[in-house]
Amino acid sequence: MRCLNPNAVFFDRDGTINAEVNYLGNPEQLSLLYGTASVLRHLKKRGIKSIIVTNQAGIAKGLFTEEDLMRVNNRLIKLLSEEGVAIDALYYCPHHPEGNVSRYRINCNCRKPSPGMIYKACKDFKIDPKKCWLVGDKLSDIGAGSRAGCITFLVLTGYGIQEIKKIISKRNIFKPDFVIPKLTDLLNYL
């Protein structure tokens, strides 16, 4: 494998570090998945950056606003802070090509499986994506990580079980480098 000691780990948000809630626009619905804080704490101790990259199509679909998303993200940061950890950055894509809100109805390079958010973070932090990992519960996450050159991990929380079935049936072109049952299993690769 390319990089067994990453400079950064990119995490999808919903279904990966917090419980999957279909179109999470209410901060009260956010809860961390078991082990999230311990994984982030371990990465921080090793000097590895933790960066969230998340598609938020609910904005383009008119299900919640960017202000609602900010409230959800602020709650996430607060919950992590209460656990004694912090993320280094959070990037989100509010776009969807079939959205109901015209200003967000675009094809963009930031919506996963495009790697735009990863490239932006790498530029901002001056890191090489080939020296990074990506962890997500959807094959679109895996696609973004693969396209950027990251080592990819499909976690079987959130939509992970459904997505692994797509790989088995060969209905998807994106294949993760590793499959892990839960987020804490990521630590076995460090």
What is the terminal-to-terminal distance?
13 Å
Number of domains: 1
Average pLDDT value?
A: 95
Order of strands side by side in the largest beta sheet?
A: 3-2-1-4-5-6
- Overall shape: it is globular
Keywords: Carbohydrate metabolism, Cytoplasm, Hydrolase, Magnesium, Metal-binding, Zinc
GO molecular function: metal ion binding; phosphatase activity
EC number: 3.1.3.-
Pfam family, one: Hydrolase_like
Task: Briefly say what this structure is.
Substrate binds at residues 12-14, 20-23, 54-57, 111-112, 138. This protein is an alpha/beta fold. The protein has helices spanning 36-45, 57-60, 66-82, 116-125, 139-148, 160-168, and strands spanning 8-11, 49-55, 89-93, 132-136, 151-155, 178-180.
Task: Write up what this structure looks like.
With 190 residues, this protein is of the alpha/beta class. The protein has a single domain (6-187), classed as HAD superfamily/HAD-like (Rossmann fold), CATH 3.40.50.1000. The chain contains six helices and six strands. It has helices at residues 36-45, 57-60, 66-82, 116-125, 139-148, 160-168; strands at 8-11, 49-55, 89-93, 132-136, 151-155, 178-180. The chain has a six-stranded parallel beta sheet. Strand 5, helix 6 and strand 6 (178-180) form a beta-alpha-beta unit. The longest helix has 17 residues, at 66-82. The protein starts with 7 loop residues before the first strand and ends in a 10-residue tail after the last strand.
